[in-house]
Amino acid sequence: MSDEDNKTSQSKSNGDTKSKKEEAWGYDLYPERRGTFSRKITNVLIGKEGKEGIEKFKCEKNVYHCVKNSPIVKVMMAALKSSGCPVDIRRHISCEVCDYSVSGGYDPELNQIVVCQNVSTRKGMVQGVLAHEMIHMFDYCRNELDFKNMEHLACTEIRAANLTHCSFASAWSQGDASWTRIKQAHQDCVKTKALYSVLAVRQIGKAEAVDIIEKVFPKCYADLEPIGRRIRRNSDDMLRAFKEAAYYGYE
């Protein structure tokens, strides 16, 4: 084989690797979405699988409850509607079987939120998934988010963690908290959560992901749209955000 053939072969190989890397968007975490889900007899025997129909019914019931009753989900629904992207829960929210490492996700190709019915089994968990993923949906709708742009991806993960995930309790559970540095602990929690989310959907090294997150962090952490405040656990922040939504034109 000539040097030219070697170069061509190597170029093709690199191209295939790059193509596979670009296609690696965490979809292996959502087997039902890919059409690759199949029950394993061992999981059926221990009760982890085999109840998909019942899980889906319960999940859809919890989704409906959150859409009708959760202040934070209502804020996000109103913000999306005001931004020209109204949410139809039958079209834009899907309860599916997922890998146990994730509780939900957002599919930008279908503009659809995935609620992992086998993981997010309680109303509180479903509320958290909907609020978090609706931040991504909002960014995709209003901010022309490009999920293939690593800085865009890192930014939306920072915003979602900042607005809907990280409280002092969350930071403490992740090992990022300290009673003497609460503000810094919150920022560390957001960075940690964003890092996990980026690594879950992109095949890149941890160091590269950390660098990207640090680069966009100041701007993205300061962006509180459309909620207007950071939601603290066991506080009235969700109700306050709901009452304040009208000031932002989200009704």
UniProtKB/TrEMBL annotation:
EC number of this enzyme: 3.4.24.-
Domain of life: Eukaryota
Keyword line: Hydrolase, Metal-binding, Metalloprotease, Protease
Family: Belongs to the peptidase M76 family.
Region (Disordered): 1-24
MF terms in GO: metal ion binding; metalloendopeptidase activity
A GO CC annotation given for this chain: mitochondrion
UniProt-recorded name of the protein: Mitochondrial inner membrane protease ATP23
InterPro entries cross-referenced by the UniProt entry: Peptidase_M76_ATP23
Stretches with biased composition (Basic and acidic residues): 15-24
EC class of the enzyme, as a word: hydrolase
One annotated GO biological process: mitochondrial protein processing
Species this chain originates from: Parnassius mnemosyne (clouded apollo)
